Structures are given as structure tokens and as C-alpha cells.
Amino acid sequence: MRRAPWPLSWPGRLALLLAAVTALRVWFAVSVDLCPDEAYYWTWSLVPDWGYYDHGPVVAWLMWLGTALLGTGELGVRLGALVASLITAVFVYRLAAATSGRQSTAFWTVVLLETSPLFATGAVIHTPDAALAAAWSAAAWYGLSALERRSIWPWLGMGLAVGVAIMAKATGFLFLVGLGVFLVACPAGRRRLFTPGPVSAVLVALLVAAPHIVWNARTSGGSFSFQLQHLAGGWRFRPRGLLELLGGQAGVLGPLTFLGLVVFAVVGAGRRVRRSKSDVFLLWCLAVPLLVLCLLLSLLSKVEANWPAVAYLTLLPGAAWSWRGGHFYPRRGKIWLALAVALALATTIVAHLQALHPFLPLEQRHDPTRRLRGWAELARTAERQADAQRARLAAEGYGPVSELRFYTGREVAYQPSRTRRSQYDLWPAGQTSGHDILFLQPRGSQEVPRLCKSHDDRWLIEGLEKSSAGRREGDFNWWVCKKTRNR
Questions:
Q1: Range of the domain at 338
Q2: Model pTM?
């Protein structure tokens, strides 16, 4: 007997999948604290601008909109990431469907995307990568459309999306590099090299990003300068770096998913793909510049896990085509697919459970999920201590200052960190002159904080050494700094 067909179409199944995943992500978003970077970007949203010291303005704009709609809470801050993840999933589905010709392949490509720890986390934790991913995948889709249609409109759509990607993060420029590789290396690309389409796409991208580019020019390089310094800082040859990068990416994507992407990255540049499957080769070209850059940087400095993420958005649909008949006909393909999803999903579930209720015996400094715990409780303790001392709040570094500002709703004076500049260094400093202050100093430094040196009476609060997987009071030295007043 033949089984009855599933009543939903593949797009219907996709909608059901995304609805279920989004519901779980909303629950998770309101169950964990903001990480320091999220709180930091939220402070940007309080001062709208065309750029910030670290990145472009899109993440701040989305947070402003989210908190305007849902209030100043975790869900409001993370709303933009949740919506951007849906946009990304839809465009990845369309990319995979266009290259493979199968909606079923496109659906399972999205399943691999949604279950991977890297993208599952990025769909909730709101960083500039969320908007970058949505714009990058949209630009890739318009690129495929431009190959199929003799019209200027897909090129203009690509330019608009790339402009938004650049406004989200400087990585967006690498999309244009990948497009250039395709136009030069592929016969189908060379036929379009001197047509109005590619030129229009680049001009529109630069026009959309122009306010951000001008802002950077007026601020001595701004976020562009910061990113270059971040890339070039502390270079030294480290052969192990490449292995660390590859192992880390296998962990955040899922080992079998990563293996499939690596194989396609090798075969995707083949002559047959370049000549007879230009749409797949375009996806390969869009991914490769970022991947090569990350591989080279890994030999010189530490590469963060999220840096190559958007390259996978075009590599994954190409790999799906390759493994579903484009290059390979694996035996028991459904079993391998189920195993790839299961491995990625298991890692994702463990990471989310660890963030909610720590159960793995990890040292605090080796537990990345700890960044999502303890900040609200720390802020409540700081409020109580500040009220008891009738003092204003102050802290060192952008992370603690931002967390205290978000969870107390108070102004928090900022003392620059010795290790990293931030947007706070460009803003006017908080006023502490003439006021008593309660200062949170990262533990490990016993010298008197610079903001306290103008105060006549200074001491450390004892009894706040508690530090655990869920508490942060012991991460800081608590200084009380008082001015002597004539009575």
C-alpha cells in the first residue's frame, strides 16, 4: 500500500517549521539575560546615528524599533534578530530550491540551517550579524534572479540588499568581492561584466551605504578603522590556529554539515560547475572571499566563531545541490541527512539548556553561555548597594556599564577599559565630580579606579565575593568612593 501524501506542501511545511522554531526562540529570548554586547548595542539605540565605533547602525535601528514596539525588555531588544532569522530562512529556501530544482531539498537545507548551533543562537542573540545574514541571503537571491532574467531590476535589488549588508557590518563589502570573482571567472559572468546590471548594483549599494561611509570618514575611520585594527591586532604566526578554526566551525555548524560544506567548497570551483551551472558557481564565489580571509587570519590571530557565518548562507544551498545529485549520489542519503540534523540539533539543545540551567561541569571562563546569566541579579545588587550608600553607579568597560544601564534604568558612569576602546570613549563621560559613587571594577585589579582618585574616602565592600554559574557579584571589586563634605 502506498502512504498517503502529507497534506501540507513544502512551503507549508516550511511555514510550520519556522512558526514552531520562532515560538521556542521567543521563549528562550525572554528566559535569559542580555549578553554584554547586546546591552552595548542597546545603548547605541538610545543615540541614533549613521554609525558607531564598532559596527554599522542597523543593529541599533532594529533595537530602537523593537523596544518601541515591545518595550525595553529582552524581547524588545531581540525582536530584530528573530525577524531577521525568518527572512534569512526564507531566502535560503529560495536559493536551495532554485539551484536544486527541488522544494524538498530546499526544506531540508533550511532544517540544517535552523538546527545548527551557530544560526540557532544568532537568531536570538541580537548582534549585527542578524541583519547582515538577512541582507546577504537576499542579495544572493537577487543575484540568481539576475542570471535568469534580462532585466535591470534584480541587479537593483541586489544593490539595495548589499547596501543594507554594509550598513549592518563591514563584512558586507566582501559580497561585492565575491560578485567580482564571479564576473571574471565564469563565462556567464563575463557576458554580463560590461552590461549596466553589475555597475548598477555596485552604485546602488554604495549609494545606500553612503551615509555610513561618510560618517566613517568624519570620525577618522570609525567602525571601518576599528574592524581593521581588530583584524590586524596582535598578529603572530600560529599554525594551530587553522585547526582551531576548522574544529570550532565543525562544532558550531554540526560535524556532518560542516563536512558537506567543505567538500562543496572544494568541488564548487570545478570547470563543469563554472560552465554549466553558473547559479551554483555564483553561490560558491559569494562565499569564498570571506572563507579564505578567515582561513588566512586564523594563522595570525584568533578568528571568532561568527565571522565566517554569512558565507555558509550561500555555501549551504550549493552543497545541497552537490549532494543531491549535482556531484554525488550518496547511498542511504536520508540516513546521512537525519544524522547530520541530529548531531547539530543535539549540540544546539545542550547549549540552550546550559544557558538556562547550567549542568555541564565547565569552568566559568570556558562556558560561553555564562554571558547570558547573572546580569539582572548583579544590577539589583548594585542598586541596593548604591541606594544604601546614596551613591551613583560607575563601572569599567563597555560590558558592565551597558548591563547596569539596561537592568537598572540609571545612568552609569564609564571608565575606559585598559584592553579595548568602545563607543563610550566617543561619547561625553558621565558626571561623577562632586558625587559619591559605587564603582564595579573587574576582579583582578587592586588599584584604585581612576574615577575614584578624586574622592577623599575609598574602600572595598566586603562580603560580595559570591560568584557561580548564575551569579556575578564575585566577578567585580566593589568600591565605595565618597567625597568629604563640610557640614
A1: 10-356
A2: 0.93
Residue 437's nearest CA partner among 417, 411, 419, 473 is 411
The string of pLDDT tens digits covering residues 382-441 is 999 999 999 999 999 999 999 999 999 999 999 998 878 888 988 876 666 678 999 999
Share the mean pLDDT of the chain: 90
The DSSP symbol for 478 reads E
Per-residue pLDDT at 317 exceeds 70: yes
- Torsions phi, psi of 388, nearest 5? -65, -35
With a CB cutoff of 8 Å and minimum separation 6, the contacts of 84 are 62, 123, 130, 131, 133, 134
Boundary-marking domain end, from 322, 356, 390:
356
Q: pLDDT band at 230, cuts 50/70/90?
A: low
- Rounded Cα distance between 117 and 257, Å, is 11
Phi, psi of 476, rounded to the nearest 5 degrees: -130, 150
For residue 288, being part of any structural domain is answered with yes
Largest CA distance in the chain: 95
Same domain, 451 and 335: no
